[in-house]
């Protein structure tokens, strides 16, 4: 079973993820990404889906036209875990491409 991040680990991790917000109520991180259009947003989601399958760690997300809202938390750990940080970093790398 994967462990949730300690408060110190969470603070360090969030410092390295400036585009993400901490949702204290769910001990999760969130990010909204706006793309040029639906095709670009859907293409991004497809790339993330492939990584999520490989990692066996799936985001909670929603898509409305050119916007993708993402929430990452590890339900088994009861909050943020290293898996969420790794997924956020992978997502950020896709956005930066």
TrEMBL record:
One GO molecular-function entry: 4-alpha-hydroxytetrahydrobiopterin dehydratase activity
Keyword Transcription on entry: no
GO biological process, one term: tetrahydrobiopterin biosynthetic process
Reactions this protein catalyses: (4aS,6R)-4a-hydroxy-L-erythro-5,6,7,8-tetrahydrobiopterin = (6R)-L-erythro-6,7-dihydrobiopterin + H2O
PANTHER family in the record: PTERIN-4-ALPHA-CARBINOLAMINE DEHYDRATASE
Entry's family note: Belongs to the pterin-4-alpha-carbinolamine dehydratase family.
NCBIfam families: PRK00823.1-2, PRK00823.1-3
Protein name stated in the entry: Putative pterin-4-alpha-carbinolamine dehydratase
Native source species: Sphingomonas metalli
